[in-house]
Recover the amino acids of this structure.
C-alpha cells in the first residue's frame, strides 16, 4: 500500500522514521567527511530559493553531498526579499558565509514539466511564464540588496524541469543553457560555456558551479535510464510550517510553508483547502492530516529555547487559522511540534504543552 493510502497513525510513524534515517545519514562519518572534502575543493556557498515541491531536490539533481546547499522553500516558490523575516534570515546567512571567506552563489528557481503542463508549479497554476517573471523580480531585488556587480553575491536564475531533473540556466544576456540537451561528452566544454554566459561571475564561482552542472548531466542520464512514475495527482496530507524539512523530498505528500511571509494566514488557508480537497476527492483517507512545525537552532541554551517557543507559536497560530476557517478539517488535525539542530540535523519532537 502506498504511504498516502495508509491510516494517519501509520503515515505519521513513517514520517518520523524518515526523519530519523535522514539524521543518521547526515551525521555519519562518510557524509561528514564528504561535506568537508567538498567544501575544501569548492568553497563557494550555495543558497537556493525554491518551491516546496518534493520533486525539486537540488543536491540529488547535482550529485552534491547533503548539507552543502542551503535551501529556502516556500509554498508555490513565492518569495519577496522585502519580507522582514526572510530578509533577516538571508542577511544573517550571507554575513556568516562572508565572514568565513566564502562568496555566495544564489540560485533563484522556478520549475515546470515538459511532458505535461499539469505537472508544473501549482503555486502559479502551472503557468511557467508567470513563475519565471516572479523569479526575475526576485533577482532584481537581490541585486538591489547585494549590488549588481556580482563580485561577492551572484544571483543566478535557474529553471528546473521535473521530468528529467534538468537544470536550465539563464545567462547574463538571458542566453539559455539547458542541460537536458547535453550529454556526458559535452562536460569538458562546460567551463568555456559558463565563462561566456556569465562573464561577470568571479572565476572561483565559475569553478565551483561546474561540479553542479556536471552532476546534473549525469543525473539526467540516470533518470532517462530509469522507469519512474511521473505522478500528476496531488495527494498531500501534511502541512509543514517552518524550516528544516530537507528530509521531505517526496512528491505530493507535504505542503511546506516557510515562515517568511508577513501574512502567514494566507498560505495556511490555501494549504488547508488543498488538504480538504484531497480528502473530499478520495485522494487521501479522511481519517486525519498532520500539521507539523519545525524551527532550527544553532546552539544549545537560549537559541534552542527560542526555537522551541517559535515552533509552538507557529503550531498554535496555524491551528487557530485552520480551526477558524476549516472547522470540520480541524477536527481531524494531528499536530507535531519540533526543533531541529542545524549542525546535526537531529529533529526533536516536543510535547504539545510545555
Amino acid at each position: 500500500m502506498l504511504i498516502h493510502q495508509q491510516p494517519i497513525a501509520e503515515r505519521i510513524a513513517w514520517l518520523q522514521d524518515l526523519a530519523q534515517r535522514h539524521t543518521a545519514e547526515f551525521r555519519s562519518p562518510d557524509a561528514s567527511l564528504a561535506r568537508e572534502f567538498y567544501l575544501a575543493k569548492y568553497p563557494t556557498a550555495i543558497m537556493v530559493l525554491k518551491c516546496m515541491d518534493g520533486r525539486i531536490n537540488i543536491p540529488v539533481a547535482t550529485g552534491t553531498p547533503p548539507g552543502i546547499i542551503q535551501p529556502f522553500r516556500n509554498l508555490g516558490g513565492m518569495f519577496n526579499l522585502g519580507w522582514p523575516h526572510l530578509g533577516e534570515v538571508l542577511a544573517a546567512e550571507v554575513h556568516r558565509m562572508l565572514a568565513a571567506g566564502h562568496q555566495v552563489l544564489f540560485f533563484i528557481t522556478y520549475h515546470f514539466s515538459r511532458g505535461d503542463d499539469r505537472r508544473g508549479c501549482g503555486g502559479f497554476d502551472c503557468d511557467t511564464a508567470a513563475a519565471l517573471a516572479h523569479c526575475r523580480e526576485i533577482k532584481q531585488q537581490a541585486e538591489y540588496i547585494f549590488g549588481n556587480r556580482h563580485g561577492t553575491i551572484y544571483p543566478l536564475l535557474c529553471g528546473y524541469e521535473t521530468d528529467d531533473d534538468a537544470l536550465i540556466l539563464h545567462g547574463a544576456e538571458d542566453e539559455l543553457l539547458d542541460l537536458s540537451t547535453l550529454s556526458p561528452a559535452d562536460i569538458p566544454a562546460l567551463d568555456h560555456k559558463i565563462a561566456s554566459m556569465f562573464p561577470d561571475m568571479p572565476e572561483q564561482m565559475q569553478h565551483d558551479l561546474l561540479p553542479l552542472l556536471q552532476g546534473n548531466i549525469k543525473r539526467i542520464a540516470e533518470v532517462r535510464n530509469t522507469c519512474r512514475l511521473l505522478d500528476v495527482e496531488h495527494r498531500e496530507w501534511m502541512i509543514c510550517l517552518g524550516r528544516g524539512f530537507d528530509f521531505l523530498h517526496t512528491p505530493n505528500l507535504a505542503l511546506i510553508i516557510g515562515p517568511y511571509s508577513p501574512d502567514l494566514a494566507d498560505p495556511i488557508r490555501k494549504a488547508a483547502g488543498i488538504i480538504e480537497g484531497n480528502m473530499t476527492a478520495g485522494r487521501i483517507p479522511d481519517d486525519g492530516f498532520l500539521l507539523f512545525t519545525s524551527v532550527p537552532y544553532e546552539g544549545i541554551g537560549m537559541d534552542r529555547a527560542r526555537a522551541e517557543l517559535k515552533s509552538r507559536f507557529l503550531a498554535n497560530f496555524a491551528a487557530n487559522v485552520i480551526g477558524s476557517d476549516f472547522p470540520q478539517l480541524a477536527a481531524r488535525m494531528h499536530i507535531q511540534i519540533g526543533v531541529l539542530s542545524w549542525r546535526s540535523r537531529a529533529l526533536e519532537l516536543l510535547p504539545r504543552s510545555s
